[in-house]
Amino acid sequence: MSEKNVYESPLSSRYSGKEMKYIFSPDMKFRTWRRLWIALAEAEMELGLPITQEQIDELKAHKDDINYDVAVEREKLVRHDVMSHVYAYGVQCPNAKGIIHLGATSCYVGDNTDLIIMTEALKLVRNKLITVIRNLSKFADEYKALPTLAFTHFQPAQPTTVGKRATLWIQDLLLDLEDVEYQLSKAKLLGSKGTTGTQASFLELFEGDHEKCKAIDKKIAEKMGFKGCYAVSGQTYSRKIDSQFLNVLAGIAQSASKFSNDIRLLQHLKEVEEPFEKNQIGSSAMAYKRNPMRSERIGSLSRYVMVDVLNGYFTSATQWFERTLDDSANKRLSVPEAFLAIDGILNLYANVADGLVVYPKVIESRLRKELPFMATENIMMDAVKYRGADRQVLHEKIRQHSMAASRVIKEEGGENDLLERIAADEAFGVTLEDLEKLLKPEKYTGRAKEQTADFLEEEVRPVLEKYSDIADEKPEINV
Questions:
Q1: 243 is catalytic
Q2: Which of 13, 283, 328, 468 is catalytic?
Q3: Is 153 a catalytic residue?
Q4: HSE (CB half, 13 Å, CA atoms) of 428?
């Protein structure tokens, strides 16, 4: 049980899932340090340094049972986290303690671990993106033919379909997925470059053999499951890498926030609602309310991630020469918190997308109130085409009738009587019954249904098939 008199990040206690919290946990960090020390020792042994297999085996035997109490006590004395863990590891591995961290600097374990952790975290983000895309695709397919009023400037516009609108959300996520995959495709390690990136200590260890200095980075990368290391660095990897990771997360936050705003507006219109559980309370005062709390939380956390990306920009921009330490405290906050927030966002997004509730009757009612205005173009074209009417004359008459009908709606609170006005105008030569036949919503949605089907088949299905091994998740929403 957590202490109630100590602050804890709500990203950890309320929003993020267990997997992401483990990736950024001390246990993941320090176990990775030990894996890196083993990789370094193995590479040095393979390149001829006097390290034995028995020493390697001793290191491997204790790679996961970290003696945290020893490390904590040592850090109180020496005020250095890396050297405290080198000491603690050596206590467990007395035969190998002399070769732990040989030739390396603190950034060997610190920076390589950061790169490994960010890569693992981004893989988890990718998996959750797939779950959201899958959920939205099912929704888009189910409602691909259901006409709904579209909006530009949040003003009534030419109809679309509920499913077509969902494809816009999916398309944003596909763009994000491309960015995620691109970032993962570039994944590299720092390697072991030394205090200013020159590998001077390794050149000394290998008695001036430059090829062995080059080989050690390749071996470390291979042992840690990476394709290579950055060719050059200062003491640290370029902090632009952190900035690029944060950029990808901020892009996902943009997409999620756009979706959440649309759902909030649709819930206001009573057309589509996010899931609302049986015992959920919408308001402490107004018992009838069904507030879009999850969508609001998506928007709130997304705002945090989009602002957090600035930390990456400023940290990268203000590094001095080969190394400065003003990045450290900022990185400890900005990078993990961004990933934890995105994890919470995608958990919410998957939950909402999986449980959207649609109200077709409300959608139809609102659409039919606006259809007479949208039918006027067809009415005018038919009159010109079949009855030889003057288009410019009819255009002006429609403008006048539309303004009059709008006044009835807005100033008198009445119903839309535009069709009655047109039917009564001899210039159009049509009856009200003729006009009513024009008011079939599906006549005005263009290719929305077909576009949705094509998009799901040609753009989405190949992506989902590529990631078919990623299981559907039912993320737990804590609050």
A1: no
A2: 283
A3: yes
A4: 26
